[in-house]
């Protein structure tokens, strides 16, 4: 920071000047960072391609910055830039978020049931709002699985089971596979969630399979994924002997599967007591909306940027490069309701940061990231702009090459 002027000045003027100098310094730092990483990207590209024409073509395709270039900073440097308190987990604050979600879900369910006596016209709005809240509840369990909810693992697993079982997710089974996703993020073959399909597998898919995988219907595939995983992978999140799990994890998986079965039995009992229509209106349809939110948000965190996103294999993959291949999304007013899930890059790099510190942590590392940070398109109150992005990506991002250590999505359109 610049020293204050050496001549008399009022406190208000000094405050204004100091703020201005700070702002200028930050802008200069951000500009210098972007300039530096662009230069490094160009150098990396020249190393990989001997043809001058190929270099120019690639740089033009990616808007002048090659996203697969090795970053000129380390994970440790990014961590040092984040305020230490961002890594602090406050169990009390986390529990307040959980109880807020539970109370809002119960309130909306009670209100919808009460209004049913007078008119059914409120249900579409109820399904939309309740679906968002059920997704928020799922995200509480997500944080528990990462251990970012609390430093107490018993609290993490207890709340995680309560949150995930209510939305029909086997807590430990999904927690373990999601950790695998984070440990292999951006790896074209080893990633767990929404990983790319190879050209060979794409060509072998039937028309019906392609129609489902590359249409908005794919957003409802999460329950199927829990049972069978994604195309090209085997195993189940419910079976303790699944290749997803180590022997030491099998007991945990059995406990979570038992909780899932108990929740299913509770829903069946409520169907018997109040009728299937009651359960469909109050629970099943909001549940499907929450599944669509989960599918859409997680898909767009790894796909659909205006320039293609790199995927890696072999020696080209690293934890930091994989994390930098993720995308932040501006969800508007919804982002706060959904526990800052749109703030995704810093979460992938440092999953131990609680959700209520993600925005601050992102701002702290953005000047260092430079062009490696993909600025999210600004949203209105609702992120309706992402519908266009989602549909476009589903229509164009079909497969990656079977071989190669740095690959990008290609279109299967003939």
From TrEMBL:
<dbReference type="GO" id="GO:0016717">
    <property type="term" value="F:oxidoreductase activity, acting on paired donors, with oxidation of a pair of donors resulting in the reduction of molecular oxygen to two molecules of water"/>
</dbReference>
<feature type="transmembrane region" description="Helical">
    <location>
        <begin position="121"/>
        <end position="141"/>
    </location>
</feature>
<keyword id="KW-0472">Membrane</keyword>
<comment type="pathway">
    <text>Lipid metabolism.</text>
</comment>
<keyword id="KW-0812">Transmembrane</keyword>
<feature type="transmembrane region" description="Helical">
    <location>
        <begin position="93"/>
        <end position="115"/>
    </location>
</feature>
<dbReference type="GO" id="GO:0016020">
    <property type="term" value="C:membrane"/>
</dbReference>
<comment type="similarity">
    <text>Belongs to the fatty acid desaturase type 1 family.</text>
</comment>
<dbReference type="InterPro" id="IPR021863">
    <property type="entry name" value="FAS_N"/>
</dbReference>
<feature type="domain" description="Fatty acid desaturase N-terminal">
    <location>
        <begin position="38"/>
        <end position="107"/>
    </location>
</feature>
<feature type="transmembrane region" description="Helical">
    <location>
        <begin position="253"/>
        <end position="276"/>
    </location>
</feature>
<feature type="transmembrane region" description="Helical">
    <location>
        <begin position="211"/>
        <end position="228"/>
    </location>
</feature>
<dbReference type="InterPro" id="IPR005804">
    <property type="entry name" value="FA_desaturase_dom"/>
</dbReference>
<keyword id="KW-1133">Transmembrane helix</keyword>
<dbReference type="GO" id="GO:0006629">
    <property type="term" value="P:lipid metabolic process"/>
</dbReference>
<dbReference type="Pfam" id="PF00487">
    <property type="entry name" value="FA_desaturase"/>
</dbReference>
<feature type="transmembrane region" description="Helical">
    <location>
        <begin position="282"/>
        <end position="300"/>
    </location>
</feature>
<keyword id="KW-0560">Oxidoreductase</keyword>
<dbReference type="Pfam" id="PF11960">
    <property type="entry name" value="DUF3474"/>
</dbReference>
<protein>
    <recommendedName>
        <fullName>Omega-3 fatty acid desaturase</fullName>
    </recommendedName>
</protein>
<feature type="domain" description="Fatty acid desaturase">
    <location>
        <begin position="121"/>
        <end position="373"/>
    </location>
</feature>
<dbReference type="InterPro" id="IPR012171">
    <property type="entry name" value="Fatty_acid_desaturase"/>
</dbReference>
<feature type="region of interest" description="Disordered">
    <location>
        <begin position="33"/>
        <end position="53"/>
    </location>
</feature>
């Amino acid at each position: 920071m610049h020293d204050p002027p050496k001549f008399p000045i009022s406190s208000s003027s000094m405050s204004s000047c100091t703020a201005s100098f700070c702002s200028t310094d930050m802008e200069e730092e951000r500009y210098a960072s972007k300039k530096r990483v662009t230069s490094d990207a160009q150098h990396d590209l020249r190393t990989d391609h001997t043809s001058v024409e190929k270099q120019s073509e690639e740089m033009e395709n990616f808007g002048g910055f090659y996203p697969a270039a090795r970053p000129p900073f380390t994970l440790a440097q990014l961590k040092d830039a984040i305020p230490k308190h961002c890594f602090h987990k406050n169990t009390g604050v986390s529990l307040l978020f959980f109880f807020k979600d539970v109370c809002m879900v119960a309130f909306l369910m009670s209100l919808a049931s009460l209004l049913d006596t007078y008119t059914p016209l409120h249900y579409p709005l109820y399904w939309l709002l309740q679906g968002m809240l059920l997704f928020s509840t799922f995200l509480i369990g997500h944080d528990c699985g990462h251990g970012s909810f609390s430093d107490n693992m018993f609290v993490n697993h207890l709340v995680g089971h309560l949150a995930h079982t209510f939305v029909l997710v086997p807590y430990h089974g999904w927690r373990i596979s999601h950790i695998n996703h984070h440990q292999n993020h951006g790896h074209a073959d080893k990633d767990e969630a929404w990983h790319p399909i190879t050209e060979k597998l794409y060509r072998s898919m039937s028309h019906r399979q392609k129609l489902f995988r590359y249409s908005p219907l794919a957003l409802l595939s999460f329950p199927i994924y829990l049972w069978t995983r994604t195309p090209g992978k085997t195993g189940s999140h419910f079976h303790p002997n699944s290749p997803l799990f180590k022997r030491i994890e099998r007991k945990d998986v059995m406990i979570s599967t038992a909780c899932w079965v108990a929740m299913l039995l509770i829903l069946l009992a409520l169907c018997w007591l109040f009728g299937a229509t009651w359960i469909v209106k109050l629970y099943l349809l909001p549940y499907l909306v929450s599944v669509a939110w989960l599918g859409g948000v997680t898909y767009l965190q790894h796909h659909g940027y205006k320039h293609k996103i790199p995927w890696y294999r072999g020696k080209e993959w690293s934890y930091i490069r994989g994390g930098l291949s993720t995308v932040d999304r501006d969800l508007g007013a919804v982002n706060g309701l959904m526990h800052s899930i749109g703030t995704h890059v810093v979460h992938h790099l440092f999953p131990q940061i609680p959700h209520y510190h993600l925005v601050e942590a992102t701002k702290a590392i953005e000047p260092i990231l430079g062009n490696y940070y993909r600025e999210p398109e600004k949203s209105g109150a609702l992120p309706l702009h992402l519908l266009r992005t989602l549909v476009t990506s589903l229509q164009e991002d079909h497969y990656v090459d079977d071989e190669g250590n740095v690959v990008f999505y290609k279109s299967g359109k003939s």
